[in-house]
Design brief:
By secondary structure, the chain is mostly beta strands. It contains no helices and 9 strands. The chain has a 5-stranded antiparallel beta sheet with strand order 1-2-5-6-9, with no helix packed on it. About 4% of the residues have low confidence.
Length: 160
């Protein structure tokens, strides 16, 4: 039996954290496209707004830093345990908001047409965090991955 901390022997997750129910997380996605009335130019854009990453806080307990002792007068048999110190699905990071734009020039060639595209991904250069370190310590919540930075793609499509 554990030392009164609500953790059974050999269990790494408190019993109150066993039932995990994620809250309703909203996502927004949209697309708009408009053909300009001059020069055969089409402008389009997409928006996506996604919930941020779940915040995780884990701590490693071993025989040297464990506050609780067993009633048997000896250390725990498990050399080390990783404990969740924050209830799962209770905290989330900042939302990921991204806008992509496309500019298309349409050129008629014979019986077909060519679309020249310029795509601008992450147009406003968002730096949203996708993943972060969950171990409690000096680097807790340090970003390990962020959204891809702004970049441009050029393409052409020939319909014949």
């Amino acid at each position: 039996v554990g030392g009164g901390n609500g953790i059974a022997a050999g269990q790494v997750t408190p019993a109150s954290f066993c039932h995990q129910e994620s809250p309703y997380l909203t996502q927004y996605k949209g697309l708009v496209s408009y053909s300009l009335p001059w020069y055969g130019v089409r402008v389009s854009g997409t928006l996506q707004s996604l919930p941020g990453p779940q915040i995780i806080a884990t701590n490693v307990y071993n025989n040297t830093n464990r506050a609780a002792l067993t009633t048997l007068g000896r250390p725990f048999t498990n050399a080390q345990a990783t404990i969740n110190t924050l209830e799962p699905a209770s905290a989330f990071g900042d939302r990921l908001n991204q806008i992509d734009l496309r500019f298309t020039k349409i050129v008629n060639v014979g019986k077909g047409r060519i679309d020249f595209n310029v795509d601008l991904y992450n147009a406003f250069n968002s730096d949203a965090v996708i993943g972060e370190i969950g171990s409690i310590g000096p680097v807790w919540r340090l970003p390990i991955t962020v959204i891809q930075p702004r970049f441009v793609k050029f393409a052409a499509r020939w319909d014949f």
